[in-house]
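Worked Example 4.2. Consider the chain below.
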Amino acid sequence: MKKKLISLAMLVTVFAMQVVGVSAASKTATMAVVGNSKGYYEVDAMDQEELDTVAAADKTTADLIKDINAGTKTLDDIAKAESSIASDLAGESLVTAFMDVTPINGGVQLADGRYQVTLSVPALAKGMTDVKVLHFSTKRNVWEVITPSNVDLNNKELTFEVQDLSPIAIIAKVDASQAVTNTTGTSPKTGVDSTNTVPFAGAAVVLLGAAAVVAFRKKNA
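Applying the procedure from the previous section yields the following structure tokens:
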């Protein structure tokens, strides 16, 4: 019995480490600057500082982005709030959470002044079509849906051009029969952040640990 309890405790520990690993990956691997853009841009999670910048332009939008990243709201809520892009969002699903992209030393600008950015997006997968960049411009206070100049599903990269930079998320039409389970972004099938499963996994760890303690006490009673 004692050996079984020790084995259970080890299993709980391993499971907890896996949960922490998934959580860490989901925070860091959503998008990254690659190719010619590397060193000219940086991508950051939407923490309170970034959200405050959005709130300075539009508090309602800041709250909406925060809720979408938390998994409590979806693209439908953006479509309802911003009718001008509703048709562009029809049939689309979130592939990533919103993240903030900012230029370094002026970024990489085209002749017309637009920024050109190439990103690695691990959540991109075959079966996705009509991949686009959903952008909220804090400078112009507008939502826009940008068609990338290049999408490489094999290498999970895309390149797009934008007038100014602020929060973006990657969206796409997803073939349900080829929906991808990915721990580094949002579920393309549901549009809900896959990191939302972490609290439930953590709860499972606590319950397993409690069960082990109870069993051990009964054995020694």
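Residues 11-29, 180-208 have pLDDT under 50 and may be disordered. The beta strands are 32-33, 41-45, 93-94, 99-103, 115-120, 128-137, 142-146, 150-152, 157-162, 167-174. Compare this with Example 4.1 before moving on.
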